[in-house]
Amino acid sequence: MVTVGEVVLGRIRAQAEVLAGLDEAVRADLPDAVHRMRVACRRLRSALRSYRRLLAPGATDELVAELRWLAAALGRARDREVLGERLAARARELPAECGPERVAVELERWGRAEHRRVWPEVVAALDSPRRRALADGLAALLADPPLRGRAARAAGPELARVAAREQRRTAERVRSALAAGEGRDGARDAALHEARKAAKRARYAGETAVPVAGRRAKRYVKRMKAVQELLGEHQDAVVASAALRAQAGASEEAFGYGVLYGRQLAEAERARRALPEVWARAARRKLPRWA
Questions:
Q1: pLDDT tens digits, one per residue of 169-186
Q2: Would you state the pLDDT for residue 250?
Q3: Taking Cα atoms as reference points, which of 47, 33, 34, 44 lies closest to residue 67?
Q4: CA distance 77 to 80
Q5: pLDDT in tens, 114-169
Q6: Which of 199, 269, 278, 189 has the alpha carbon at shortest distance from 235?
């Protein structure tokens, strides 16, 4: 019998190896390296949180906090890089009267400058004692896992139970987001962002179950990923519109910025309108019942 503890430790070990193997690639700023390290941090943190009941109380709290810290340090550079690329690509789709190439070049220049500005934070994080302590903490966890008795249970039912719990958690966030009215305080956008994070955590729980549940877990992952990506499109559009609003005053291409800003708002609105249908496919109660 494969136990749930074995499966979860396998997931943690695999992602810890990914994390450890990316330091040099990130320092060299190789393509996609920062993104891959950030995802490894998120997958590790998700595993430690979703399956915390398998581990001694409080045993992983510090690791979770440090993984959040490292992902945030990486994210400031990654987010600016992606934002610059997104805005430049959208600018080149503008009508000729908006000066698409001029706007795109200006946004590319801004994105590169922002990336250079925050890049030292990434290198400093990798070279810090906290990064070394995080690696040591993960190694210690894997060398002597603080497993509780329930970790010896059969993997299939336990993994399905956690996936169902994460599905319910995501449902709560989606309902709150759909119920939130449009307001000047950004409450609706914040609620949608929380729903996205919940869908991502549910997706990662499904990924953990794939070695045991196979095709059925993959279907769960696919549905949660669709929700995550749709809400990611919404969040990207929200962040992009805010950046455009902040930068427009310093540009001579105010008209092009204004049209681009309007298009970002429209992209966010399309994502919001599509959410109920996409979520309906991920909300089916039978989806996580693979055991």
A1: 999 999 999 998 765 558
A2: 65
A3: 44
A4: 5
A5: 888 989 999 999 999 999 999 999 999 999 999 999 999 999 999 999 999 999 99
A6: 189
